[in-house]
Every structure is written in C-alpha cells, then in structure tokens.
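Example 3.
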Amino acid sequence: MDRRHFLATGGAALGGLALCSGSWAAPAPRTEEPEIMTVTGPIAPSEMGRTLTHEHVMVDFAGVDVVGAHRYDRDEVVETVRPHLAEVADAGGRTFVDCTPAYLGRDPRVLCRLSQATGVQILTNTGYYGARDDQHIPQHAYADSVDALAGRWVAEWETGIGETDVRPGFLKIGVDSGSLSDMDRKLVRAACRAHRQTGLTIAVHTGPAQPAFEQLDVLAEEGIEPRAWIWVHAQNETDTTRHLDAARRGGWVSLDGYEPEHTERYVRLVTAFRESGLLDRLLLSHDNGWYSVGEPGGGSFASYTALFTDLIPALRDAGVSEADVRQLLVENPADAFAIRPRTTR
Ligand SMILES: [Zn+2]
C-alpha cells in the first residue's frame, strides 16, 4: 500500500501515527542491494556521505520507570538541537547516527523533525541498554526468552517504532564494562538473533576489551560474523593491540569520544590502524550532544563538528591521504550500516 492510499483509507483513523518516511512499505525482500535505513526512509549506501557514527540528540538518564515524552517539550528539543545539526551540514556532514536507545530518550518524532528541518539524514536504533547496571532495562526483558526479546526488536524493524512508521537503522545495545553479566549476555544473544532476521548491524556500548571479546565469543556461538558488530567506546581500552586484534577478526572498532584535546591520541590510533592495513575497520565520532531531559533548556551542549574542523586537518598533517579520510568518514560508515545479514552459518 502506498502512502497516499494509506492516508486516504485508514491513516487518519490511527490518529497519532507519525508518517515520517513518506515511503512507507513493508521491508523489501533482501535480494537487492543493501540499503541504509534513515528515520525518513531507506537510502543507498552511496548516499550516506560524511557520517558521524555515534552521537546523541537527546538523553534522559532518569531510569526506565520514569522516562517518557511527558518529560520534555518536543518543540524545545527540536529548537535546541537544530542549530547543532545545521553545523554538521555546514561542515560537510550528511548523515548522523543517533545512538540513544529506547528508555533513554529515543524519540523518532524528534529525529524526523530535525532531519526534515536540517536535511541531515538521521539513523535511529532498536535494542536495550544494559550498561549503568541495568537501570534502563525494562522489566519484561528479564522474563522474556532470548527469542522473545529479539522478536520485540524485529517487530520495530518490521512495523516501525511505537506509533510511528520510523524504522531502526541498526541495533544498539549496551553492556557494563566488566565481564558480561547474565543480562548483558542475553542482550548480545538477542541482538545476534535479531541481526539474523533483519540484517541490522549490532552496535554495543562496551568500553574495555574484556566485554568486547566476550561478545565476539557470543557472536561466534550464534553464527554471526564480527563484521556485523561495532565495539562502541573502544577508546576506553588503553591497549591498542586489543583494538587491532578485534579489527583483524573483522569487528568494527569505534573510537567515538573525540574532542580537540584528544587529537594526538586519535592521530596515533588512526596511524596504527593504517599501518596495520586495518583502516577499513575503524569508525570515528564524538559521542556528543545532547538535550539532557530534566535540565533547564536541556543543559549544556557539546557540538558535533570538531572531527571535521580539528581531527581531519590533523590527520592530513600526519600524512593521512584524502582517500584514507574518505574511507574513515564515508566508506566505512556506509559499509558498517548497510543492512544485510552477516552470518557464518
Ligand atoms: Zn553514546
């Protein structure tokens, strides 16, 4: 059913249903080229352009029993964040991956409005965040089987998030920084099964190497290739050999805490990947933003542009070629978020 037909026949009766994509259709059979799913609909990987792979529009840390749209004013959030996203566009950024999960301030309506207002393509996600000692994990996740949990995320992919037609562009889960807890392990396993059904890439808030490599073991048990997986916040691991090990196994290593004061370290890390022939496994971003729900005016905001204005020139000065910069900012994100199952069996 096309959108016009949908609106004419039943859309209005559904009241609050937000039609953002304008191209709503059931997920296509995956026989064609892989695609990227933005909040306003699918695009080809070649349309992704310069991409920030880990940022946040809004975050609400209040906890799973408290969060919800009643806690903020959508107009205020959009007006607060819009100039920061416009700066991304001005700096040559075309796509923005919003990594705020459900129960932490994910709001597809806000993301749609921001994308439409700025022209920046935005990806949102499905999955649960088990870092911060599970205070953002809903009660049903404890009772659910692994498959039931995966099924909830697959349902968002198939029919849209909540009352909207916005579909997730990736799976985002979180684990704590020590050895994987039972809940962490369940989330990783459920993400693997949801990946198998949807082809959505699995980004995992992780940090140090220990839980990262434990996740790779779970992926192996589930028959999922490491190239379907992103080690988020890998900069929190100080041993670069561990980064390179994960990349050699095929995983995506996300160095996503860039600020100008980290330039020397980021140049060193990028150089290490380049010299090891692993530049095609690396993702860069700031983990910046965001409108903090519960703080007056959304609190202080960290902008999304230092990567373009500070890191890229520093990389060029260190001898990183234009082709390598393009690989980091354009080709790697397109490959990382292109939707297709990556399975070993
Ligand atoms: Zn983040």
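The domain at 35-337 is CATH 3.20.20.140 (TIM Barrel). The first helix runs from residue 3 to 11.
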